[in-house]
Specification:
Rossmann fold, five-stranded parallel sheet, globular, alpha/beta, single chain
Length: about 180
């Protein structure tokens, strides 16, 4: 695999993506790792208030990367929080452009990979090399998705996500932008 400027852990499958990115980093596939910052949920705060052991997703991902051999100085967090694939792609594109990254590899859920690639291709200049792949332990089976309830549901949800982006123009993202 050719070296990229930026390896990206996706929010779509953060634990398996972090494991995959750690392997890729050790194989020399990239020199910098980008980690998403999840939107905070009020139940996260309630869990902490109840003194229940809780590790937020970003901390878990950073732990996997560090234990997987990625030095902490090679890991950077997105400057803004994200709440899904569409906002994640926009944030990744903005970050890549701010760092003048010429190439990036996003590790995301197999069922999301085509949409992530499409979103990033639209958001980044044509000369930026965009690669998307799924973690090697991703359990989604494109050739047999209809054989399990969970994978069938994932396909239906992904089609709805495509409709949201292509047909509806992601009205939730527009609404969120107006609020901020």
């Amino acid at each position: 695999m050719a070296h990229v400027d930026l390896l990206v852990v996706s929010v779509a499958s953060p634990l398996s993506a972090a494991t995959e990115v750690a392997h890729l980093y050790l194989e020399g596939a990239g020199s910098s790792v980008l980690v998403p910052r999840w939107s905070w949920h009020e139940l996260d705060e309630e869990t902490r208030r109840l003194d229940v052991t809780y590790v937020d997703p970003e901390t878990r991902v950073r732990g996997i990367l560090e234990r997987g051999g990625v030095p902490p100085e090679a890991v950077v967090s997105l400057p803004r929080t994200i709440d899904g694939t569409d906002s994640e792609a926009a944030a990744i594109a903005a970050f890549a452009q701010s760092r003048a990254a010429r190439s990036l590899l996003v590790v995301t859920a197999r069922s999301h990979s085509a949409r992530v690639r499409w979103l990033l291709r639209r958001a980044l200049p044509a000369d930026v090399d965009v690669r998307v792949r799924s973690p090697r332990h991703d359990r989604f089976a494109p050739a047999a998705w209809w054989q399990t309830r969970g994978q069938s549901r994932e396909v239906v949800e992904e089609y709805l996500r495509w409709i949201n982006v292509l047909v509806l123009g992601d009205p939730w993202a527009r609404h969120a932008a107006k609020e901020s």
